[in-house]
Amino acid sequence: MRPWWLSLLLMFSLLVPVAAEPTADAVAEGKPDLKDLAWLVGTWEGEHFGSLAIMTVHAPAGHTMAGVYQVVDPDGTCSIIEYDLIEATPDGLRWHYAIYGPGMTPLTETPFGHKGTYNLEVLADGRVRYWHDDPTFSMKEAFIERTGKDEMKSVVVLRGEEGEMVVEFVSHRRSPATPE
Fold first, then answer.
1. Reduced to 3 DSSP states, what percent helix, strand and coil does the chain have, rounded to the nearest 5?
2. Rounded to the nearest 10 degrees, how much is the dihedral formed by the CA atoms of 155, 37, 93, 153?
3. Which of 10, 103, 125, 163 is the most core-located residue (most Cβ within 10 A)?
4. 11 neighbors 48 (Cβ within 8 angstroms)
């Protein structure tokens, strides 16, 4: 059985979207902007280690884009809820997160903390890479790949005492309730 914090780490990887075609301004500066993430707007569903994972992402507003990720266990309990804010800054995109457990209890015992920020970049092949600035952080980096119009998957690279471990995560599909 995987540790519960690995489930959270993999959950993070689903909230960072893959860029579509970059806007002219982003290409000129070499940085993605929120318009590059617009394909992610809507509701996505998938399985999260035997539980239902639901991700809802709102359209960009100003310089931010907000989202909520929840994991609902088979007994109906919401075991994890994460609030996310992707922010366009002069230095590029930043992803801020806050993670809670049942009853909105902060999940502070994760190896990546209750709150934090990731850096994001769009690679030449269209994948999004994200990482934490702290070299002691358990996640070295993660990648999100859009595998179809309504599908995405992620790969997470973890650091450990015995080296790096690459974990592939099951893809999420856009919920049928999400209008195109």
1. 15, 50, 35
2. 0
3. 10
4. yes
Write out the DSSP string of 136-159: TSSEEEEEEEEEETTEEEEEEEEE
Burial of 152 (0-12, 13-18, 19+ CB in 10 A): buried
Q: Cα separation of 165 and 84, whole Å?
A: 25
End-to-end CA distance of the chain: 37
The two tokens of residue 23 are: 């806007």
pLDDT tens for the chain, 180 residues: list them.
Answer: 444 444 444 444 444 433 333 344 443 455 667 887 887 889 989 887 888 989 899 999 999 999 999 999 999 999 889 999 999 998 889 989 898 888 888 876 655 567 888 888 877 777 778 888 777 777 788 888 888 889 988 788 888 788 888 886 667 899 876 655
Task: Tell me, yes or no, if the pTM score tops 0.90.
Answer: no
Burial class (CB in 10 A: 0-12, 13-18, 19+), 139: buried
